[in-house]
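ingest -> validate -> predict -> emit
validate: passed (alphabet ok, no gaps, 180 aa)
predict: started
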Amino acid sequence: MQRPGYSRTAIIMHWLMAISIFFLFISSWWMLSLPLPSEDYKYRVLPFQLHKNIGITLIFVLGLLLYVRWIHRPAPVEPTAMTPAMHKLAAANHVVLYLTIFVCCLSGYLSSAHSGWTTTLWWVLDLPDWGEESEELNILFSDIHLWTCWILLALVAAHISGAIYHAFRRDGLVRRMIRW
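emit:
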């Protein structure tokens, strides 16, 4: 018999991604308010490295989530829970959400790779700089990163709004993602 909800792994990955994205938004506002680095202000390196590490790790978590969702598909949604149009809208939101997370994280890494600042993954593995230091490319990828982050924020708001809608309807959809 197929389980009514998502697998434990999918649930853990979902909530790990949600917490990480929330942290990345909060930390970005904090990081950008710090003074520019100088001999007196070297503490800016830690928050930036942490932000980059979580963003890069998020790409791998996203890949794992997609793999787990592909291998362990939950039972179909009850017809009374969603109309066909709502189901298509939810599926589209998820696809665009996953693509936006990927582009947001990748553009942040590529901006960093062209900024002249190195990225060390969890202070263990030096990641390659995929090109020379370039102010133009840094600005291009930084702009892409900024705009995809705003799009991601709107998509997350739509996703949360849909979850709240279904929670108030008590149609069982939210239970599929919060059950243990």
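The chain has one domain: 8-178.
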